[in-house]
Known about the structure:
This protein is mainly beta. The protein is built from 3 helices and 26 strands. A hairpin with a 4-residue loop joins strand 2 and strand 3.
Amino acid sequence: MLTHLPQHAIALHQSMTVDMAADGLPAKLITLVNQQGMSVTLMDIGATWLSCCVPVTVDHQTQYREVLLGVSTLNDFYQQQAYLGATVGRYANRIAAGKFSLDGEDYQLSINQKGNCLHGGESGFNHRRWQMQQVNATEAQFSLLSADGDMGFPGNLQVIVTYTLTENNELSIRYSAETDKPTVVNLTNHGYFNLLGADSGKDCLSHQLMINADHYLPTDSSGIPLGEFKTVEATSFDFREQKLINQDWLADSDQQQAQGYDHSFVLRSDVRRATTACATIVAADYSLTMDVLTTKPAIQLYTGNFLAGSPNRIGGEYKNYSGFALETQFLPDSPNHPEWPDNDSILRPSEHYHHLTCYRFR
């Protein structure tokens, strides 16, 4: 059955299905492969992006480099708390005190980090079993029904996440959702990348990064926005020109309290159509570049400040800063900030939630 797949993918299919999932059944995996030899492995638990092997030319030789941090057993997947590669929801990032009001109704959500609701609550979408189907050799679709009241969120929410691998070495993730009652929705993928190799032992801070954003969102010590956008001009958050991630490392209190970058950037309006890169990241040795394209209004840069102890694929553990995440999303705590432009995360029964994010490797 798996003989047509690359050897690393076959090994992952085998190792990830030894342990049983929380429902007593094994996980299901799909690997997408394009004509260039790029391969992406996905899992139904958490609609998770497990592996991303990209062809890289070094000394005129083509190598296949694993650039996505991940695990090789389901037990390790449940053990790690970094949301490695998972689809997170209903609401990615934080909602202050797990509270929001909508149409005069007050809602209390599941609390799971420092008194706040993070990535959907105690039992978010990242540990659910999604319905998975392979559409063709380069596309897979995941669907999930989140019932009214799930983690405190209103409305029966039907979600579909579609992964498509193109011949341009681009993985696009399309998110769609519908509800039967007004609710809030903010879906993203929590992949962590290291373009030098996920298990190379090298940190991500020597990568060069560009983010098309003029403003970022300062937060308190628990990651809750203080409310006002702040210009990146003359701050360590100015990535409008490509620079080393660690060029202005821990240079101010905003970074220091988070032990690195864990902040949302407000994307410029002209890069919210998924036609121009909202962020570009280049490996320290210039061997590989990744562009991020999206229709979302914001992107969260997280430099893996608390990754230490998370299991890796090779029987060891990741260290802090082993990888970075670029999570496309609505701004954290948006339901409590109606004054923020272009950050309306409310979904109503007459509407369709539809967003796209692409990761392009070159």
